[in-house]
Specification:
Number of strands: 11
Number of domains: 3
Helix content: 40-55%
Strand order of the largest sheet: 1-5-10-9-6-11
Shape: elongated
Mean pLDDT: 78
Low-confidence stretches: 22-35, 173-177
Order of helices and strands: HHHHHHHHHHHHHHHEEEEEEEEEHEE
Distance between the termini: 106 Å
Structural class: alpha+beta
Radius of gyration: 39 Å
Length: 461
């Protein structure tokens, strides 16, 4: 009776589940492989034959009809005093049930000698588990109808030993086989709501996505050297590195962490290790505070300068502290981003839809005033060290000055698309290029934009 209930267990589970829910759904999968994996090839070569056999009614419901038939034969034989015949019928029933479900686990156990072959079986792992489960009823039958201890022969003992060794080898192979390298869709690396397989936690999947180079960062190619290491092993190494980092306050730059054999995983450790995530978040806050203090210091230095007093009223006057890491700030219109004109005397250059203006000795800030006019303003030379005027053609009337820190100035072309002149005044170049530690706010720029013909550049000073 126990063997019968065990054989019916999976079918009862799915039947009850389908009644209580809308069904468990369906799942399909596919894979591509190269080379020969004998167990896997043999499994699929005989798949049709196996399914044809399993379609025979005696093997339905986990072999329950065959089990009932065998039980009836054993019961009738023992009632008539023919115990040996009853044990033979029971053994035959058990053999047929074992032959039904043992080949797949044995073929899998053979293929686990090669990690690459073992990975091919992973989508079938649930079916393999069911096959192992269906070994329980025949084992129960053999135990229930076994020959009394004093009457057991050498053959019976050997069969029991062989079955025990086979079952142990299959279970051991499943538990010790090298884990697979999951694809990005199995890990949910595409950012969808797909749940990672095999019960992976979200942080584990994110860690593996980063290690494999499947993260949303298109420029990140993953951690070299771990491409063919199984997911389970990568996670185990990551946790070891996490434990080491935790002992150093989550600092992945600690000497002990950098010297660890798996140190290359540190760049992805923020997803797996809370201590590292907290340490990096604290460092990011510290850097953000330092940047804010740096910017505030330069803003205050620029605000301390006297404001320019135009001789004629501009349409608008704007002030900004503009930062650059590459000597220049740029001016672009829609559709002309990325254009970098050559500057005249390393101060200002123009092309259709683009401007280049010197602002720092490679890295630094400039105190900038931008004024837009509808007519030509008077020339002002007092207090300025360099003054150059260039022609500029505005195709869209949307000229915007941008720096390397996200600051921008718009509304410079007061009359929309057309021809303009751009006059740039500068002071402080010598101070920042010659002094080792120039004062904040040393570079000052005054930019005047007004309508005019695009003639040759004019160098006033």
């Amino acid at each position: 009776m126990t063997a019968l209930l065990v054989s019916l267990g999976p079918d009862l589970y799915w039947w009850i589940g389908s009644l209580l829910t809308d069904g468990f759904g369906q799942e399909s999968f596919g894979w591509t492989t190269y080379g020969i994996c004998p167990g896997f090839e043999l499994y699929f070569a005989n798949e049709y034959i196996m399914y044809t056999i399993l379609e025979f009614p005696l093997f339905w419901y986990g072999g329950a009809p065959l089990l009932l038939l065998g039980f009836a034969g054993w019961y009738l034989s023992t009632r008539r005093g023919r115990d040996r015949l009853g044990r033979t019928l029971a053994g035959l029933t058990a053999t047929l049930l074992i032959a039904r479900c043992l080949p797949s686990p044995l073929l899998y156990a053979y293929d686990t000698m090669s990690p690459d072959c073992a990975q091919l079986w992973d989508p079938l792992s649930f079916a393999l588990g069911i096959d192992l489960y269906y070994l329980i009823p025949p084992i129960l039958i053999l135990l229930a109808t076994r020959t009394p201890r004093g009457q057991r022969g050498l053959v019976g003992r050997r069969v029991a030993i062989v079955l025990t060794l086979l079952g142990t080898s299959v279970i051991t192979a499943q538990s010790t086989a090298t884990s697979k390298v999951r694809a990005y869709w199995e890990l949910g690396c595409d950012g969808s709501s797909y749940t990672p397989l095999r019960g992976l936690a979200t942080v584990e999947a994110q860690f593996l996505c980063r290690v494999r180079g499947h993260s949303s960062d298109d420029y990140y190619e993953g951690v070299p050297g771990w491409e063919h290491v199984g997911d389970r092993e990568v996670l185990a190494q990551g946790r070891q590195l996490c434990d080491l980092a935790e002992r150093h306050g989550g600092n992945v730059n600690a000497q002990a962490v950098e010297n660890a054999p798996q140190a290359s995983l540190a760049e992805a450790l923020v997803f797996l290790c809370p201590a590292v995530a907290q340490a990096q978040a604290a460092e990011e806050r510290r850097q953000a505070d330092a940047n804010d203090a740096y910017q505030a210091r330069h803003d205050n230095a620029c605000a301390a300068h006297p404001r320019h007093k135009p001789r004629i009223k501009p349409v608008r006057q704007q002030h900004a502290t503009m930062f650059t890491e590459f000597w220049y700030i740029q001016g672009w219109e829609n559709g002309f981003e990325g254009t970098a004109p050559d500057p005249v005397r390393d101060l200002v250059g123009s092309e259709r839809g683009a401007l280049t203006i010197w602002a720092a000795d490679e890295v630094g800030n400039a105190c900038l005033t931008a004024e837009s006019y509808t007519r030509r303003p008077p020339l002002e030379t007092k207090g300025w060290e360099e003054i150059i005027e260039v022609g500029y053609e505005s195709p869209t009337g949307t000229l915007t000055l941008v720096d390397g820190g996200g600051e921008s100035i718009t509304g410079l072309t007061a009359k929309g698309p057309g021809s303009y002149r751009v006059r740039v005044h500068l002071r402080g170049r010598d101070l920042v290029t010659q002094a080792i530690d120039p004062p904040d706010g040393a570079v000052r720029l005054l930019i005047m934009v007004f309508p005019g013909e695009p003639t040759e550049p004019i160098i006033y000073k």
